[in-house]
Design goal:
The protein has about 160 residues and is mostly helical. It has eight helices and no strands. Helix 5 packs antiparallel against helix 8.
């Protein structure tokens, strides 16, 4: 569970929630650290600060895609698998935190400049986001362990 601590530390160093998840969990998929940070940079504040899907959720879904995504486009079983894994993550996050949307999680309307300023002044980003990041990272760790083991068994056979 060390990546959950690294994710929170990444957030506390100034990166957004999506970047904070993608960096420690997706690092091995990128040539350099900058690429992970750049890819997730538009997903903070609920996608471009609109209060939509939480950045920790978006970053987690990016990681699931990196680990279990499909290519070419006609890989029907892989499409179903990544959908199943993604939905399992979403259900676990929503069950734990009550919602998937940044504005509802922070209890501020991030789609307006006034709402973002209220959230900033109230300390919502510092008080709520680290728990969301840590929770998302913990759920993601569990899912990666679960499905990586299942995928290895399916590829190599039992035992």
């Amino acid at each position: 569970m060390y990546r959950s601590r690294e994710a929170v530390a990444t957030f506390e160093s100034g990166f957004n929630c999506a970047q904070s998840i993608l960096f420690p969990f997706g690092r091995q998929f990128f040539r350099d650290d900058v690429s992970a940070f750049r890819l997730a940079s538009a997903f903070g504040g609920g996608i471009a600060s609109r209060g939509e899907i939480c950045g920790a959720v978006s970053g987690s879904l990016m990681v699931i895609g990196l680990h279990f995504g499909y290519s070419p486009a006609d890989e029907v079983s892989a499409k179903a698998e990544v959908r199943q894994i993604s939905n399992e993550f979403l259900q676990a996050f929503e069950q734990r935190f009550g919602d998937l949307h940044c504005s509802k999680l922070l209890q501020h309307d991030l789609s307006t400049a006034e709402g973002r300023e209220e959230a900033k002044l109230s300390g919502a980003f510092q008080s709520v986001c680290p728990a969301l990041i840590e929770g998302a990272a913990t759920i993601l760790e569990e899912i990666l362990l679960k499905y990586s083991a299942a995928t290895r068994q399916r590829i190599t056979g039992p035992g």
